[in-house]
Task: structure prediction
Amino acid sequence: MSKRQKAQSTSERKGTKQPFRPGPSGSGSKFLVLLLINILVAMFWAVLVPVFGTLDYVIGYLVGLAFLTLVERSFARQTVRVLSFLVYAFWQIVLSSVSVAWIVVQPRTAMHAKLKRAIVSVPLTVSSDFEIAALATLITLTPGTLSMELSNDRSTLYVHSINVNDIDAFRREIKDGFEYRILQITQGIV
Result:
């Protein structure tokens, strides 16, 4: 019997309900359903209470978030994690874009002398197809890096970067950045 089944049978005996934890068993679809309901509430709110224009959608979303949090406590926490992830990903793309732009505007001889291109093997904690694809896509979307290949045992991702000063720091940046935030969303890791 798996840990999840044991926890479920224990909670059934006690008459308690397990908190929502997104994960590989498909409970992440519950979050998506709640998110869709929240978006619909925001749209209805904007249509039924048109006071501030575009801001009505935000107000409607917050009203829906408050209501759905009463129904499913962890929905607000998960929404914050997703928003935090999106802000982090956007910020990393901006920082990398500026870094690559700076490299490009440097004189050619100075640029080649400073660049330390490398292919780095990054051991993976993520395991599902979705998690691996999300991580590889985010790495590729970040200017200056490219996901090249996944090992046959799916435990290592090979990443090319145009400027790696410290290989261990580069690995930590990926693991503590994108990978950790993906795991927060998909497995509820805190």
